[in-house]
Records
---
Amino acid sequence: MWGYTSGMLLGQKPCKDCEPAQVNHILLKTSSYLSLALKPVLKPLDHLFARVIPNRSFAWFDIAGPLVLRLFAWMRIGKLDTEIREHDSDRTKALWGEAKRRGIAMRQFRLGVVKDLFIAVHQGTTRCFDGLPRPIGPDALSLYWMDNKPVMREHFGAANIPIARGGSVFSEKAGLALFRALRKPVITKPHTGSRSRHTTIHIDTEEGFLRGFRNAKVLSPKVLIEEELEGFVFRGTLIGGKLQAVLRREPPHVIGDGKHSIHQLVELENSRPERTSKTFHPIATEEEAEEELVRQRFTWESVPEKGTFVPLSQKISRGIGASNTDVTDDVHPDNRELLEKIGALLDDPLVGVDFIMNDVGVSWKEQVRSGVIECNSLPFIDLHHYPLNGTPRNVAGALWDLIFPASKKE
């Protein structure tokens, strides 16, 4: 948790490769090294614990957690809030707003940067959880590896789930050998982490590869090197193994109309009232946008043809003007089947799956450079609740249906 806290840079200057959510490089890299060292030691203990503590109808955390949090609040170590605050995350607002609608009593424990611990009560049943709730019972074994990109690749490759060719390495020498064997362009990224931090794309030269490799090494002891897939990044969220919603995540961009310049199109898009909210922001027009235009042989005064998609960055962060569109109704049956196959393989009730393809309405079998890029055990369900374009999807409702079935609203 500490490595991801933007307010704890400990003297480190803001990093453009961490934008828009800054992290402390040293803390995050140290955490990655500890994880690599401790996981092999702890894995046998995890299996032993799963055998000794069988499936049960209650969770110890639901009993002890609320007692401890209330004791802390009584001692003035933190505070238990009964209302949402303006600066809470969109994920918290989506989850809590749906809880209120169902008569689920919520409390949130706050202590400095700690603000994702919750107590939820419905009809005498109490659940205590971090971030998002899961049904009572033993944890899925996949929770130990689904967020780890290299290990996820091994499991998915064995199950014939489409992934990009590649692998993870420690050294530049091994990285160069892998780079030379892959189809270009390739992508480099830390083997753990999120939000595309220190990720480099469009790499087709050894010089560019070395820059990307060293950039990823800032956050991680190992670097993941993959062939670059083609298309948009999509997020599919599964609740109880069933696909609930799919969102297309788009980089900052404009679409040509054959009349306006790129500069004018950006001004028109940035005038949308939705882009003045906490969730969505104006499209950035600084150095990165300039470089992206040059790569496409455009200038700000170019007038793209009608329907031309003009990206102004390769990042999909809303903080720099990225957008998203709900495409749940457009998902091809083969793609739905693939995502639910992933849900069955993971055997976990709450999963976010990121995948790349050109068109979610076309079978993945017909899209050569498509595939899954990562999974998330604590997905941002708010993406589906607050899309910039398209129909909002009540993913929080599907999750509460699983946690408190009696709260279900018709």
---
Amino acid sequence: MLFSEVIGNEATKERIAGAVQQNRLSHAQLFLAPEGAGGLPMAMAFAQYVVCVNRQGNESCGQCDQCRKAAQYIHPDIHYSYPVIPRHSGDKPLSTHYIAEWREFLTQFPYGNTYDWLQFINAENRQGNITAAECLDIIRKLNLKSFESNYKILIMWRPEYLGNEGNRLLKMIEEPPANTLFILVAENQEQVLNTILSRTQLVKIGQPSREDIAQALVSRLHIEKSKAMQLATLSAGNYREALRQAQQAESDWMQELRDWLNYIVRKQSRELLQWIERIASSKVGRENQKQFLKYFINILEHALRAQFIPPEELRLPPEEQDFALRLQKLADPLQISDMIGELEAACYHIERNANGKILFHALSIRLQYIFARKEALVL
């Protein structure tokens, strides 16, 4: 992957490319990036830049044999480690057992998150892990001589999934073989083992700007510019979310949201129960339930901003903007903040396989109590 294919973060690209050029390359780096910011694409572009034999300033050439292999994720000196599940009961799963799926996933969803990956390998509700057996395999591979490049590189995606067995890697991270490079790609610094964190150089990757995301949507998906700007605004710096919104009719979420809140504020119990049955069904799925709640959170955040800025500065699609302004009248800032907290908690419980019917029923009751603090308006 080329640096030019990574959205935004131009200063970070220049800084890490400059470290290679000036031979100031830290042997263990932690790329810290929020979801959808491009931590994994940045790591892959960086690895390709390191192995490239004909660099063009701050960019790899993309043409040499090293670049072509890196771009296809088949370079023999670039190794990958990521959360996996056992294929069969009693297995000790390794990343290499899923290398074919991994290459296909990177090709299709380079900005995907862990949930996307685990669903891609049909994990269903099982939790992925980077196991002790994986750590031993990493040590074995990195103790081998490099095949084609001067460097041996390990890209570990989501080191948060390392348990205490990750301490097996400490000695190698602290005293690696010559020309060995560790690139760890994390979303949550607090969930990374402190013993590993203290041995890495932190590289923070910020969320792409609204303009960068909009430009990517225009050039890659050929979306009309004004629509791309709307999607970029709603995604709040998360390119994965922008892609999801581009592939899904937002009006569907809007109608679902409008129905739900009307049933709540009008106290239409029968209709509300029917709505909960539908949204909690397996046909909708956990990921769509979570994305629906995130969509609502985004609207609420804009409603909160509408308390303090002119409506034209919200930069929302007309339907979403009108809805946010109605919510502004329906709830005060404290009520909106409380609703956001309830929705974020619900997202957390969905990720942990909470029963959908119970969750949405309880959430509806909590929202009803919040709305009851102020006279309800019809949405």
